[in-house]
Amino acid sequence: MNIELLKYPTGKFIKPTLITKDILKKWISDISTFPQRLSSEVINLTDEQLDTPYRPDGWTIRQVVHHCADSHMNSLIRLKLALTEDKPTIKPYYEDRWAELPDSKNMQIEPSLKMIEGIHERWTVLLNNLAESDYSKIFIHPEHGKEFRIDENIGVYAWHCNHHLAHITETKTRNNW
């Protein structure tokens, strides 16, 4: 078992040299369709399956679903901050600690699936209505010590959707579910 492949089944995000309208359209589509794609993969899993880690010492599928709700909620807020403030410094959060809280470790996934559906619906409306000048707006991520442009962050989160979905689909494949 290749641990790097288990960690990054779709590879790591690589920012294109030039982010074109076609690339943005694909990324926004990935974000828009994520709730349905995720739900179709997890809705019929048993509690035992949901509590299966996607890799040794990794999160369970349940934690991955809850993490997506947490992470994408934060991303929507970051987008809104970048659209309404001048170079805001966002507040990072300890995703590993959030994943260990009772709502991530033990709770049923349906509330997070509902959150993801609503978050992505609102997120998609914003993304589909960005002005050309909005793509170059930035926020500062102190944890990474860098500025992120909105267009790059759209790509990061399209990748994030597909990355975590692959954790789930690869786990299902390996376990013949």
UniProtKB/TrEMBL annotation:
Signal peptide: none annotated. Gene3D superfamilies: dinb family like domain. It comes from Flavobacterium tiangeerense. Residues 35-168 form the DinB-like domain. The lineage of its organism: Bacteria, Pseudomonadati, Bacteroidota, Flavobacteriia, Flavobacteriales. It comes from the Bacteria. Keywords: Cytoplasm, Hydrolase, Metal-binding, Zinc. It holds the Pfam family DinB_2. SUPFAM superfamilies: DinB/YfiT-like putative metalloenzymes (SSF109854). HAMAP family: YfiT_hydrol. InterPro entries: DinB-like, DinB/YfiT-like, Put_metal_dep_hydrolase_YfiT. This is DinB family protein.
